[in-house]
Task: inverse folding
């Protein structure tokens, strides 16, 4: 007898985002004695999906383009626990973007706040504080009062929005509890605008935005010791170096940068 049904998985990713946009369809065939699962990516962007099970001592990763399906796994003669309790055995984590993209490092981005505004760069690239990991190495932290307008540094489609959190502080446990907007670019890279205030997004997933468009309000949610905007562009699991239009050089910590015409 084959049991075939669909579930909508709710899960938290490792400090990246939380979502309700992966549909996993398990297929249990007792007669043929196999268990398989297919996932459908309903995000408007491609994703890198990692699936882990500590109890089964297994982990695997797959790339799923937007609006497409992938077979996650197919187990012949599966462990009995797999057929009985599969929902609690697996953790699903994702990263938006295409891991195979080659970023144009000469592309000129807008500063991530409206023209005419000026803010201090509180933390720049390769900082020993928090910009020292593969996904944050080329990030920027702009100090700005809570509620300041932020704008898209590059046009694209809104791939994900989180705006439900209200707390922030110097606590690593808050890493995955910060509000953010993620915008997917046409080359497969993704820009993340993080630490927004609660209900601080004025765009929704699937919206098309242009460079310079106001998208939300800054805040201090998540792992943040002061109000600021954390901005980074990633290609898959790695951050990439970027340059800002009309700045002519890299940005240095402690200096104030005006978004000029």
Result:
């Amino acid at each position: 007898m084959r049991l075939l049904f669909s579930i909508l998985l709710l899960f938290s990713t490792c400090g990246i985002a939380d979502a309700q946009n992966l549909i996993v369809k398990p297929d249990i065939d007792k007669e043929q004695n196999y268990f398989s699962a297919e996932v459908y990516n309903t995000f408007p962007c491609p994703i890198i999906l990692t699936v882990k099970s500590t109890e089964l001592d297994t982990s695997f990763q797959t790339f799923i383009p937007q609006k497409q399906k992938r077979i996650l796994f197919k187990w012949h003669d599966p462990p009995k626990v797999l057929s009985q309790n599969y929902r609690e055995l697996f953790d699903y984590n994702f990263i938006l973007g295409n891991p195979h993209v080659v970023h144009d490092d000469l592309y000129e981005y807008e500063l991530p706040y409206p023209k005419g505004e000026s803010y201090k760069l509180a933390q720049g690239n390769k900082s020993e504080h928090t910009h020292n990991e593969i996904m944050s190495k080329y990030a920027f932290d702009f100090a700005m009062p809570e509620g300041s307008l932020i704008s898209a540094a590059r046009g694209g489609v809104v791939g994900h929005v989180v705006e439900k959190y209200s707390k922030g502080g110097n606590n690593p446990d808050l890493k995955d509890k910060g509000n953010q907007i993620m915008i997917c670019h046409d080359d497969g890279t993704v820009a993340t605008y993080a630490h927004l205030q609660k209900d601080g997004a004025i765009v929704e997933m699937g919206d098309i935005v242009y460079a310079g468009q106001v998208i939300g309000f800054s805040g201090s949610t998540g792992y943040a010791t002061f109000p600021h905007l954390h901005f980074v562009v990633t290609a898959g699991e790695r951050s990439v170096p970027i340059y800002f239009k009309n700045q002519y050089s890299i940005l240095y910590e402690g200096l104030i940068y005006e978004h000029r015409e």
About this structure: Helices lie at 80-85. The CA atoms of residues 164 and 214 lie 19 Å apart.
